[in-house]
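Our collaborator T.R. sent over the components below with a one-line note: 'Predict the complex.' Nothing else. No constraints on interfaces, no templates requested, no preferences about which chain binds where. So this is a plain run: every listed entity goes in together, and whatever single assembly comes back becomes the starting point for the next discussion.
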Amino acid sequence: MSTRERILAALQGKPVDRIPFIPLIDTYSVLDMPAHVQQAMQAAANDGYWQGMLAAIREIGCDIMLRHVYVTKSASGAPHLNGFGWFESPVVTSSHMDGSLLVETLETPLGTLTGTWGFTEMHGWIPHPVKHLVTNHEDLKIFAYAVDHLRLEKPAPDFENFVNAEKAIGEAGIATTSFLNTPLMDLIETCWGLENTYFLLHDHPDEVEAILDRLHQVQRLVVERIAESPAKVVIEYENTSSTLLSPKIFHRYCLPLLNEYADILHSADKIFLVHMCGKLQAFASDLATARFNGIADISPHPTGNFTLDEAATTLPGKVLTGGIDATTFIEPDLRRVEAKIAALILKIKPYPGVLLGSADTAPRGTPLETFRLIQHLVSTAGSYGVRDTLSYHPGEFLASIPLPEKASHPAGTAPAGKEAADSVDMHLVLLELARRLDGKCPEVTGTIKFMVTGDQAYRLFIEQGKCRLEISDGAADASMAGNPKNLLALFTGKLNAMAAFMTRKIKFDGDLKLLGVLTAAAE
Amino acid sequence: MTLAKDARGMRKSKLSGTRRYEMEKTIESIYQGIVDGDQHLVAQKVTEAINAGLAPEIILKDGLVAAMSEVGRLFENGEYYVPEMLIAARAMQVGLKLLKPGLADTCVKATGRVIIGTVAGDLHDIGKNLVGMMLEGAGYEVIDLGTDIKPEAFVSSVGEYRPDIVAMSALLTTTMPNMEATINALEAAGLRKKVKIIIGGAPITEEYCKKIGADGFGYDASQAVKVALAMIGRP
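Returned assembly:
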């Protein structure tokens, strides 16, 4: 499969040869990257945003699912205000820099509103609201007047931009297009802020709902234009999170609109994902029945509260991307990263419709080696076909590359080189064992305990052939105890069970016949 | 919403008979007004209570603080979310503003004093604001330093305000190291032992809290209040 075929198949829930790895790379992600990545990005960015990001992703070396390749011409003027669209006369927008602040102004006959956005170097020069445009009921009236003067027509197409991006990517991946979040989320995040939005919605619901309705009408036209475009995959950047919304608010103000956008896009045979990078557990029932195809950039703890495997179980049939949170990307001990990601890959296997990636933008400070390590893991542990998980050897990749200074263990005790190659993560090994054994012996029921030296106890529950692994101690019908190296040798056929018993490398106890079923895993 | 008098610790005032009953009803209305986020009702009832001569401390503790404690409980139970919490906190702040002159006159001590800010390089303020409001609702005096607060600004504020607690927020993995930088700066200034430090924000974990030597970590605004109360909770 080419990367393009693989990503498109995964996005449609079809079988793939391996799980794709499509982190969300933004300029922020690249700020501390080695010079060659930054130079490649900057040189290409002279031609435009997506050109720069494509060059950066190529240097980083992961699968390409390029974001934000626009298919429409955006309204010119103040960057945030004209994000809503074109304002008709007599409403006028303008913007200027005041020191380090971006000042945007919305002039109407009822009055003028001013919002400011600040920047910090650490923030990656991404603007952040400092003074909101609307803070009280008088501002609300002015804003209502302005949105009533938003032009109600589809934005001008720029399909050639998208075609050029797809051509440049070729079989190495896909381009995706995008549009802004639902009006309520947009007000919360850009022009009104969280407190003002909720206070005004609470105090003046009819007026705020009229504004939301008007903004939705404009947004709907954007979606209709996107539906006509050559883009196959569309991502809406909603940023849903229970740190911003309640389930009630989401159900009333966001979900119906997302469903409407989904219907428009599906009628044009598009795949529609919604970027939701926050805490999602509270919205699970709505998300399960939502009509969009999937959720992009799922976030586990601490930035979110949904792991990929939990989301896969809770939201059956939904395409899911993401699953790796920012703190994992910046973890300096790459061995810990490897153990975590490999365990995740095995856990979600072979769930269709999953694409491994970053929970929101991959953070600044991520070592290049981390991306390469994860790319290695999806190519080995994440393979579904002939090159299956046996081609994954923990520690092997890290032993083969020079580690950056940053990547050394903080206490200087991280295994490296041969030592790293010798180390075995038994959780991964046993997860894979359970996966291989699952369904192979339908006549077998029982519990096998694995007591791993220097590790925790694991129990494999077999119920009429169905297997489930737990990290737990307790009663079992049979057990085996040994160090990780010997147990792995036994499972991979390098150590004979009888020899292991005689040399006391591994201790067996209980129903030895039950232990015999483990040989089925090697077949 | 049911109102459990014993749970909110209604205190006995010197009033008695019908008048005491009326005041209890007023406090109950303040409590319910905050839980329901009805700022106008809270303003009206707090004014009534003050005019009727009820001690500001009782209005604060039995009305405002008890109500925000209930809001925190509802939040933890998943019955309330950020929007409801914000609306309730606004109603509480309306009541608190009316009470402040009376509280100052009677020298009522706050639960503790907190300075709060988002660390250097970070302009995000939603989480910080929520924590600040909830701490106020628990009776703390909160001094909000704002966003993008450099370590030296935290240090000078500790010197100036003599807080019991320093609360720091960060949303980005790139800015969270500035929490450690601030702790180090407080240490260097000889102020570290004079304050408790709590931290929070999207990428923050308990493990990170321990690693940088902070005293406590709040997973959300409600938890932050619990952590603060466990550290500094004047009766």
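Summary for T.R.: The two ends of chain A are 26 Å apart (CA to CA).
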